[in-house]
């Protein structure tokens, strides 16, 4: 039924596009915004904090002069002050704190996902939201999220933009389009579009510094930024922002049960992380983030422009704890010790051999070999175990280097045709590091530090955009006809790790291969993988009569790796009175799997339902391992969505919008995980396919088109600006978002009745993110150079399903407070504030396995588990 509906609507929209495009073109009588145009240099003061309810938007429309309440689709506009009056220096957290439809979580001990945090718009995966900078597509991170239990699976398999590399000091405003827009912008815009507009101030310097910490005394955060603007020519500008940040780790876990036992036997000082074994909390991070934005008019009709970014950041976190040899009652980690019968438990006879040798004052490693299977009553002991009397915990880190450059020209012809042509290139590189680990197959010769490899996401693109307002006597306004084309290329590169990180030594069949915790990429796994696409679009918008606006858009896109697609969007808005209007949209969308998703090869370590660490391999869908287990080529994800809403704006101080939406997504990408037992047909298939280390793998994953889902919800936004006369002004802002996801159908593994995703992941998709979120903000501007901001964040209850156990967690309110003072002729600004000032935490974790692993609070918490934070910030402008 859905397919038939789509087909009928596609034919109708195609006919509308053809007939509209055939309209005669006539001269325009005034300029309008070119597609994705950067706003002109602001004539307002360098830093404008006042809320402007009628601020114009450039996202979701290619018509100049639309305000958020006049747009055909719902658009949120956020100011720099909304972002900066927070304890966090991470744009991911900053936006999630003020936009209830935008959610993020913190996953420690989750490989690169601990550093590049996924974020969800309308409860859909991160890569189903398109991110723009100044209206141009932003490149993705090199990280493909591969989370498995216990790290939550809502974002599993996604490859998206790294929001944390965008410094808030570089932002003029953020526009969040809460509507599917693939027909206007291309792949990924299923949930909506986030457009970050950069500073274009042409005069002044701003220096800023911020320091803060948690109530627990950890997680110290430093942030300093420098913003500089100057004019170029008569009407151009150059604006640059450089920001440095340094954030220390937090720790909210308790000692693992086995770590506590080891600490009692050998002393907690020998157990990693001060006896905890591992750390549940934020990672350490530091680095540089910078942006520039510039425009230079050649003449009255043509301007050159450019913007770009550079970032160099480093992060460090921990993996799971590995237990040592020789502690009674504690099973040693298999990389150090394997018992005679292979059940992972030291048998008494084997342990007595070790004890007898030690009693003689000798080193067991001199007597026990580690290069062959052992008969009953004998053990195989890795001689490197003597380096870790308290066990070991691999420390995982990443260096992220990122750059982007966009350069183009735009202008307007004498006939009124506005044009914008541009080229862009962006690259994100992640270089992994690991310390305090071993390659167990190398025995005593193993190093303890590794560089397991590096990943690169390289993107190039070219855009040509045109807009032509057709003046006519038929409709109530000019018909804005926008059209253009795009070419883009994505390349995913996997770089080889150092030899020790992937080498199979003499005892590989016994202890494991490669760096423990995160196996390095071998030369066979490395390579460059590319795909490109070409697209053409047409976007028409006009007032058919004085109070009725209609927009129609269509886009054809052809990909080198997937079938071509045609997507469309129809939007309408009817103004019943000057104060009240209704709006609605219907659209189709798509997202093509990335080269990263198609070619990721990763071998890491996860925990099973008993807390035992097991090796997990994720393989490309076209690899021997995936094909041996039944993998099929991937298709693009497709969506069908509609929305309807109302706008009430009786005056210039109050607005109210209410919008309902419904998004159906077919063929969603999922990470299928297959358990591999010793002697199983799956293991034999991997061995027959020649997969390295097949005998040791216990789980194998690869991407599939796994399921269909529907997300629906309601967004409410109300804003009121009050005049308190001699007491200044205040802005009350209330935002509520209701989002509910349902999994409609799940594919099965070919040749079986086994579903691609299990009931636990279905439950997580439907319940792990809160259905209801609210943000209430009051911002008071006094005439005495004192400003006051109070914010309340409401998070509805949520559930997660991990290791066969369902966890239920209650709703929570978090309160933020900030007071700002302006001194020295309004040039010096000091802010004292706090996030979560009442130090609220989520309900305690109830999962028995996670409790054993030392987790006190749910990893799926939508607001983390650090508790309260305070900060002090000072800025100076000159």
Automatic annotation (TrEMBL):
Keywords of this entry: Cell outer membrane, Membrane, Receptor, Signal, TonB box
Principal location: membrane
Name of the protein in its database record: TonB-dependent receptor
Organism of derivation: Lysobacter panacisoli
Domain (TonB-dependent receptor plug): residue spans on this chain: 70-193
Residue ranges that the Swiss-Prot or TrEMBL entry lists as coiled coil: none
Superkingdom classification of source: Bacteria
UniProt-listed InterPro entries: Beta-barrel_TonB, Beta-barrel_TonB_sf, Plug_dom, Plug_dom_sf
UniProt record similarity statement: Belongs to the TonB-dependent receptor family.
Boundaries of every TonB-dependent receptor-like beta-barrel domain copy: 385-837
UniProt keyword Hydrolase, yes or no: no
Cell compartment(s), UniProt: Cell outer membrane
Region forming the signal peptide: 1-27
């Amino acid at each position: 039924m859905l397919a038939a509906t789509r087909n009928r609507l596609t034919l109708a929209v195609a006919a509308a596009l053809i007939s509209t495009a055939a309209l005669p073109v006539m001269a325009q009588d005034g300029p309008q915004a070119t597609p994705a145009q950067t706003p002109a240099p602001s004539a307002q003061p360098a830093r404008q904090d006042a809320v402007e309810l009628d601020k114009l938007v450039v996202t979701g429309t290619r018509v100049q002069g639309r305000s958020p309440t006049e747009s055909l689709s719902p658009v949120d506009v956020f100011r720099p002050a909304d972002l900066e009056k927070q304890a966090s220096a991470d744009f991911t957290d900053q936006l999630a704190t003020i936009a209830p439809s935008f959610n993020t979580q913190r996953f420690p001990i989750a490989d690169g996902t601990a550093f590049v945090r996924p974020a969800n718009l309308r409860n859909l995966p991160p890569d189903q939201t398109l991110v723009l900078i100044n209206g141009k597509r932003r490149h993705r991170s090199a990280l493909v999220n591969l989370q498995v239990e216990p790290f939550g699976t809502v974002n599993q398999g996604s490859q998206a933009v790294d929001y944390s590399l965008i410094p808030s000091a570089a932002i003029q405003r953020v526009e969040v389009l809460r509507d599917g827009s693939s027909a206007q912008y291309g792949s990924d815009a299923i949930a909506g579009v986030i457009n970050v507009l950069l500073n274009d101030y042409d005069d002044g310097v701003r220096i800023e510094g911020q320091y803060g910490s948690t109530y627990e005394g950890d997680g110290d955060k430093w942030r300093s930024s420098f913003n500089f603007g100057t004019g170029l020519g008569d009407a151009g500008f150059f604006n640059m922002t450089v920001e440095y940040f340094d954030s220390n780790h937090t720790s909210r876990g308790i000692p693992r049960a086995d770590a506590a036992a080891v600490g009692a036997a050998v002393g907690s000082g020998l157990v990693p992380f001060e006896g905890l074994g591992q750390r549940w909390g934020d990672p350490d991070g530091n680095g540089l983030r910078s942006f520039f934005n510039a425009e230079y008019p050649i003449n009255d009709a043509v301007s050159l422009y450019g913007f770009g970014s550079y970032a160099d950041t480093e992060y460090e976190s921990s993996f799971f704890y590995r237990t040592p040899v020789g502690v009674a009652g504690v099973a040693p980690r298999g990389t150090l010790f394997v018992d005679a019968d292979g059940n992972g438990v030291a048998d008494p006879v084997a342990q007595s051999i070790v004890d007898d040798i030690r009693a003689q004052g000798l080193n067991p490693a001199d007597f026990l070999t580690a290069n062959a299977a052992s008969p009953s009553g004998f053990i195989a002991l890795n001689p490197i175990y003597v380096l870790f009397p308290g066990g070991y915990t691999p420390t995982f880190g990443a260096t992220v280097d990122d750059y982007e450059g966009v350069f183009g020209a735009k202008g307007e012809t004498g006939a009124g045709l506005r044009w914008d042509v541009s080229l862009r290139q962006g690259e994100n590189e992640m270089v992994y590091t690991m310390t305090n680990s071993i390659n167990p197959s190398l025995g005593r010769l193993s190093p303890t530090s590794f560089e397991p490899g590096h990943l690169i996401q390289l993107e190039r693109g070219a855009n040509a955009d045109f807009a032509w307002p057709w003046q006519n006597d038929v409709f109530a306004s000019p018909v804005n006809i926008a059209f253009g084309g795009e070419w883009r290329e994505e390349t995913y590169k996997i770089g080889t790790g150092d030899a020790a990180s992937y080498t199979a030594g003499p005892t590989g069949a016994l202890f494991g291969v490669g760096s423990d915790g995160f196996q390095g990429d071998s030369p066979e796994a490395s390579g460059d993988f590319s795909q490109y696409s070409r697209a053409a679009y047409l976007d028409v918008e006009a007032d058919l009569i004085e109070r009725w606006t209609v927009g129609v858009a269509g886009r054809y896109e052809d990909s080198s790796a997937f079938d071509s697609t045609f997507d469309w969007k129809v939007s309408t808005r009817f103004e019943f009175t000057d104060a009240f209007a209704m709006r609605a949209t219907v659209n189709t969308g798509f997202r093509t799997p990335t080269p990263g998703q198609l070619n990721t090869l990763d071998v890491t370590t996860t925990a099973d339902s008993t807390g035992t660490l097991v090796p997990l391999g994720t393989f490309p869908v076209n690899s021997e391992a995936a094909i041996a287990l039944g993998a099929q080529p991937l298709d693009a994800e497709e969506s069908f969505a509609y929305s309807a809403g109302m706008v009430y704006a009786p005056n210039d101080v109050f607005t109210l919008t209410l919008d309902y939406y419904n998004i159906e997504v077919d063929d969603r990408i999922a990470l299928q995980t297959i358990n591999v037992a010793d002697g199983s047909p799956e293991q034999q298939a991997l061995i027959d396919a020649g997969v390295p280390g097949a005998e040791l793998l216990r789980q194998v994953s690869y991407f599939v088109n796994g399921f269909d889902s529907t997300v629906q919800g309601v967004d409410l936004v109300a804003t009121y600006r009050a005049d308190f006369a001699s007491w200044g002004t205040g802005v009350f802002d209330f935002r509520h978002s209701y989002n509910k996801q349902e999994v409609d159908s799940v594919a099965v593994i070919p040749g079986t009745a086994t579903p691609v995703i299990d009931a636990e992941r279905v439950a997580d998709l439907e319940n792990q993110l809160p259905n209801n979120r609210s943000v209430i903000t009051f911002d008071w501007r006094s005439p005495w150079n004192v400003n006051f901001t109070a914010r309340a964040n409401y998070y509805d209850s949520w559930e997660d399903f991990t290791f066969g156990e369902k966890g239920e967690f209650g709703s929570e309110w978090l309160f933020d407070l900030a007071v700002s003072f302006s001194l020295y002729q309004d040039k010096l600004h000091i802010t004292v504030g706090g996030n979560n000032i009442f130090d609220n935490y989520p309900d305690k974790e109830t999962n028995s396995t996670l409790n054993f692993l030392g987790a006190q609070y749910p990893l799926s918490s939508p607001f983390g588990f650090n508790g309260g934070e305070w900060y002090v910030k000072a800025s100076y402008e000159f």
